[in-house]
Structure formats: structure tokens, C-alpha cells
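Ticket #4471: complex job returned nothing on first submit. Input attached below:
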Amino acid sequence: MAVDKSELLQGTLDMLILKTVALGPVHGYGISQRIQQVSREVLQVQQGSLYPALHRLEKRGWLAATWGESDKGREAKFYRLSAKGRKQLDLEESQWNRLSEAIALVLGTAS
Amino acid sequence: MPWWWKSLFRRRALDAQLSSEVRFHIEELTDANIAAGMAPEEARRRAVLEFGGGEQIKEELRDVHRVRVVETAVANLKAAFRFIRKSPSVAVTVIVTLALAIGANSAVFSAIDAILLRPLPFPNGDQLMTILERNPKINSPRAFVAPIRLEEWNRMNSTFQSISGYYTENVSETSGALPEKLTRAWVAPRFLQVWGVSPALGRDFTSEEETSGGPNAILISDRLWRQRFGGNPNVIGQKLRLDGYAFSVVGVMPSSFLFPVREVDLWAPIPPGAPASQNRDSTWYTAVARLKPGVTLAEARANMDTVQAQLARAFPKPDADISPVIEPLKEVTVADSRRSLWLLFGAVSLLLLIACTNIAALLLARASQRQHEISVRYSLGASRGAIVAQLLTETLVLAVAGAALGLFVARSAAKVFRTLASTLPRVEEIHLDWRIVSYALGCSLLVTLLCGLVPALRGTRRNLATSLAQASRTQVSGRNPLQWLLVGVQVALAVTLLAAAGLLVRSFQALGKVSPGFTTAHILTFHISASWGESKDMSKLTQRIQGIQAALRTVPGVEDAAISATLPGVPNQYQTELKVTEGENDPQHKIIAESRFVSPSYFSTMRIPLMAGEMCREQPNLLHAMVNRSFANTYLSGSPASGRHVTLLGSTFVQSAEVRGVVADAREEGLNREPGPVVYWCMSAPMPDPDYLLRTAGDPMTMAETIRKKVHEIEPNRSVFELAPLEMQLGAAFVENRLRTVLLAFFAATAVALACIGLYGTLSYAVSVRQREVGLRLALGALRGKIVRHFLLQGLKVAAIGCAVGWALAVSSSQLLSGMLYGVSSSDVATLASVVTGVLVVAAIASLVPALRAARLDPMHVLREE
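Support reply: We reran it on our side without changes. The output follows.
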């Protein structure tokens, strides 16, 4: 089931991108594919939100970009995580975990 | 490469990169579709569809990168103009306040720039020096240079390009119907070379004209050319009749060349070979010289000392006792006005500071009124920087408008300055130029930062969740400590300025009340033109001047006549060392006294009483002198003065004289100085052109025409000039003092006015903000009188604290004024107390108005405005 892009908040998308890139340098197409695969087709990121997010993260200094060759020989822009980005990823991950634990607790007691 | 760099300068490259990224993604999608079994065109079409609008995405990406500097600036400017239109009274107040403060600042700065900072208006003006002679052994005052010595210096030195000299005198020009007085500058050769200026019309003097016996030539000033010759270009070759000799005009100087004195009309060369110029003791030149490029003042001084030492060996008398004194010409010209100008600058800067605090308080009030608007913008995603930038732009627009208006104010202020301060040196050089404009802009930037930053930062504080949640009306605390602090600062600064002005005013008054020791009313002073050449025949000169005095005494309405070398009461010093022939002469305790040269009738004309002995007389063989009481007490204590002989040391002009008596002390050295020891040398002709003093029965100026006619009868070839009552001359001597006092008083008054406006504004704001509270209180039965008292006390409390701080500031900075005061100490309690009382009274009135307004609120009206 494809989640509507408007339900995936901007902050969460940033975190997912950072996590995906943390595994190694990857281009924009690769990122959207990977998120889709890893989330078992639940999360499908639209290009309309992906690329602005990538450029915003690059502007903020959390991603570093270089031009290189894809495995098929085409020229592509590869993104990788910077040191600042790594710290931001850790921060956002811990915030997300705390939040989801709290929600789970509430849902758990309510039912 | 930083992202903004890419956006500003590599637009195309950035675009290409974005397209490339998008293209890559679409191609990957196409490949995936082909791999899934679609035909290539179908695969591509599907991929493009799936990707979504490529152009839209590119546009969004460009958005992310765009540097919005210019667009933001334009948007901010538009918002700023909207703000001005919405609250015009605030904007107008700010602009006018700034215009006054920045205008005054620019005017004073332009004066300082023209007079103190800029080099003299000659090519390489820093190379110009003045040289005078001095006898270092007796520490005599600086004396003029002998022409023969000047030529030797010019020949023998190695550090100056050329040395020249000048002296000025007044001369009668008699080619017209009535004699006209002109100011003539006698100059040594190379005069124009030293200044580096060429005549605007005609030429410099030739060597023929600078030789004894050669043709008589003069250069005339631009003013004389226009007044006398109507600006006729055919003036070259025309003649003027000076002292009975014809001089032909060889050139006209440019209108900006007003040296050596502002009133100079013509320049004439003195041939170095003239017989009168050969005497090593005849000194009359003030030497001006131009240093060679790259030579320092120290090197020049050392070299000239060596040169003079050589001359001393060749001519031990008098050169062994002479030492050259070299000073930069600019220093000599501006030194006296330096202090006044910097004092003015300090005052006007304080004024600017007060204006800034006023504006800051106004803007703070505005910022808190816009709290709601700012909070909404925050929650809509604006960054703090963006909001601060917008608020600062509003302030900047006001500041620039104020600065522009201020430049107009500065232009007219500069004109006023020039008329008020016409005796200051180099006043004609004051004008506005790009330096002043950039100074004004710099001021306005400073003002923006000072006034706009604090309100902007305060207004955008982060604790906004609370501010949005509350209704804006109930949120305000009404205490505003920062605004009250600003008002307090203003009051303190105003008190300081007012105290300084008060002290200057009192000192000026005290000066007016000083008893000078001689009569100042009913004295007419004037000069009769003469030339220095007359001093060759002293007895003839003496007879002539005595004759004039006698003739003037016969005029009905004239009670007495006398002459004096310098005007009594006008600050002037001629300290000399003397020797008393009888009695002990202790080399440790030199006899230093003021020497004045007067005719014997001086004492009766000026009503200086005789204390002991008898009045001096003028006799051909024996020189008489009188001493004053200070001299008798200091140097002749215990023995009668009459019969003693005094000798003037270091003078070739006057030798020794017999003291005939003692007169009372008089403040002839200047009303602001205690009278010191004075020796009066009784002679009618200390110089060909002394000051004539007449005591009249009635108002001195009514006798002016009569006197002119009488002098014309006796001396048809001479003219009378500088005819004025002594009181006016005394007033003119203190014009700089008066200028300082007037301006400072004006600034102080403005400062107090600004402080009161600030007080009124802040209190009004406090009242308007607490309207509901006051309405509630009134509805609950509070007495109106209590409300009034509450607000009044609030205002007075701040004013009182401000006054206390101001008092402390005034006392601690009183040292700055101590040199300019007379008759009142710089920490005079009475002045400070009256200043503080005055400020408190005005502050009370300023606070009363809003307080009364608060009490007159209609509670029902206010409470209903929920």
C-alpha cells in the first residue's frame, strides 16, 4: 500500500534519507529504490519531495555530494553522509525512538 | 564551493547540474521499465510520467538554492515604507531629530576637517614652515628675522627648497579722491615659490624688480582687482600710488590666495640689496620656508642650527645670541582654535547620543506594539534573522532620510558657522564634500545599529508561544525597564551638557563684571596709516604723532588723546627681561615684566591713577618710564621707585629709562588675567602706526566723522581706519569665547528638550498601555488625584536618578573645562544645583501632561473596549 506523500512529514523523510545514505554513497534514484525496498513497498517517496529534500540536506551540510559514474556508466550525483549528518542522524533516531515508545505505551494502556 | 556562490555566479552550471540529475533519474526509471518488458518509447513515457513534472521539480530545486538577497531587500524596503505611512508622526519625529543631530555633527566635523585635519591648501602644504629668531639665553619672545640673515639662511642651508619672508603694514593709496587704506605685504624674493602658487593673471616679480633701484612692481589680490579695477583683464601695467610712489601692477593672485593675512590687498618685493636691509639688527620678516621632499622637521632644525652656528662665528654680534625657531605653518595657524573645536565636537556627539536614545525608546515602544504581528510571522516559518533584517531596514530607511535632511541642515549650519566664527583660522575653507557626506552616512549607520538593533532583537525573542496565546492587550507589563533606563540616560547627559553651558555662561558674565582698572567707556580707538620707512627718522616721527595728539585735543567733545602700541584690554603679551640699575641684580631672580609703550597722556586718558612719584614727560634726550604697583611691590619693595633706572634687555630699540613714578594696576593684558608687573615706556612713537586713543565726552562713535575730517586736515595723505569704540574691540577679542558659550548653550537647550520629549513619550506610552488598569481603578473608586500623583512620581523618580548621575558625570568631567573658565570653579555647586533644579522642574511639567491625561480617562469608555 503506497502511503500518500503528504502523510510522510518533512522531518521524517529527512531522517529516512540520512539513514539510507549512511550505508554508503548513493544517487537519488538509488535512495528512492532502497527506501521502497527496505520498507517492503510501504513507503514510496515521490521525486517531487525527494530531490528538494536532498538539496536541502546538502545545503545544510548534512549530506556531501560528488559527481561520479553509475554502474551503467552514466554520470550521476552521489550523496554521502557528512560528519555533521551522522550526528544529526543519531539525534533524530533517538528522538524518534523515544516518541514511538511513548505512543506505544499510550496505545498499549488505552486498549 | 559554497552553495550560494554557485547560485549567484554559476547559474548556468547549476542549472546544467540539476538537469543532469533529473535526466539520470528518468533514464534509470526508463531502464527499469524496459527491463519489466515495455517498449522503449512506452518505457520512457511512463518514466517521465512517474517522475512527475521535471520542470516543476527543477524549479523547486532552484528555489532551494536561490539566494534571495536582492528580492528580500526590495521586500524589506517596501515594508519599511508601509510602516512609515502607517505611523507618520513617529517617522517624522525620528527623521527630524536625526536631521538636527546628524546635521549639527556634520557641520562641526566639516569645520574640524577643514581647520584641523586637512593640510593647508597649497601643494604639499605639510612642507611649509615658519621661522623666527629667538635669544635662547634670556628666553625672549620670538622675534622677527633680519633680511640679511634670511638671505644667508636661504643660501647656506641644505634642507629647505627656499626660504622667504613677509611682513604686513597698512599703506595709503592716494591716486583717488580720498586716500584709501590698503594692506600691503612686503615680501622677500622667492615668496611665490615657497607657497607654490602662481598668479592667476600676469606674472611673478622679475629679478630686476627685486633689485634695489629697479622698477616698482606689485602683485594685487583678486578682491582688490575686482573692487578697484572692476575685474578688468587689462589691469597689467596700471599704477597705484602708495606713499607717494607709483607702483605698477604686474599680476593678479588667485581669489583663494589670502596669505599672509586675510585682508591682504597687494604684495611688493623688498630688494635684499637695499641699504636698510643690510643691518644685522633690523628685523622685520616672518620667514616662511618650504622643506625639500623627504626632509623631516628634526633634520631641518639640526641643519639650521649648524648654519646659525657658522654665522655666529662670522658675526659674533649679534648672531651668537640668535637661534632659529622652526614650526610647521599649519600648527601656528590653527593651534588656538583646536581646543574649542574639539569641545564642540564632544558636545555635538553627546547630542547625537541623546537623539539616538530617544529614537531607540520610540522604536522599542513600536516594537512591543507589533508583538502580535511578529509572533504570527514566526509561527508561519520566518527565521529570526529575516524579521530582524526587516526591522533594521525600517530603521535604516529612517536613518538615511534623516541623514539626507541632515546634510541640508549641515549646509546652512556651515554658513552660520562661517559668519559666527569668522575670526577662526581657515574658516573660508569650510565646505561640504564627499568626506562629510560619508561621515553623515556613517553616523546614520551607527544610529541604525544603536537604535534599531536592541528593539529588533527584543521584539523577536523566542518565548512566543505565550505571547500568541495571550490577548495582546493583557500581556503588556507596562514596566519597560529598558525604556526608563534610556530616559534616565538622556536626562543625565542633558544635565551634563547644561552644567557645562551654565559654567561657561557664568564665566562669561564674570568676565563682564571685572573691573579693568582703566575706563573702557567713551574711548574711541583708531589707526592712522603710516609706513615702517618712517622709523628711520625717530624725532620727526615723534613730532608728527605728538602734533596729531595735540590737534585732536582741541576738537570740541574730545577730552584727552593718547597713543599706545597695543590696545589695553585686548589679550596681548610682551614679556621682557629688565635690569634695574640701582640695587641688587640677582641672576637667580630675573626681573620679568610686561613692557608697554605709551604716550605720557595715556594715564590721564585711560584714567589710571598715579600712586607715587610724578607723571612722565617726553623729552628728546632722556627716556622716561612708569611702573605699576605690582612691579613696585615685586621688584622694588621697600624703596621708592622714582629716580631708578630700568634697562630693557635684548632690545636694540629701547635702552634704559628713568622711572618717574608708580601707577595703579590695570588689566591691560586681557580682562581674564590678573595684572602682573608692568613697565610703561613713555614715548609717542614706538612704531609709525600705533593705536590712537581718544576719550570723548559723549558716545565715541558720534565723533567718528569729526575725527576723520580733523585728521584729513592735519595729514591729507593719510587715511583713518579701524575706527571703533574700545568696548567693541574688547568684545571682539573674546568672540571665540562667546561662540563657544553660545553654541554650547544651544546644544544644552536642545539636549534638555530632547530629554523631555523622551520622558513625555515614554510616560505617555506607559499610560496608554495601562489604560485598562487605570480605568478599572477609577471605576473602583480611586481618586483622580492619586492617579496623577502616581504617574507624576514615576516620571520624577527617573528624572531624579538621571539628575544624580548627571551631577556625578559633570563633576568628574569638570577638568575638561577648567582652562576656559574665569571667576567660577569647574565644580561650582551653585551652578550645578540650579541646573538640576531647572531640569527637574521641566521634567515635572513633561510628566504632568500624560499624568493628567491618565486621570481624565473615562472608565466606562476604556473598560468597554474589550
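Chain B touches chain A at residues 3, 17, 20-22, 24-25, 27-29, 31, 51-53, 56-57, 60-61, 63-65 (CB under 8 Å). Closing as resolved unless it happens again.
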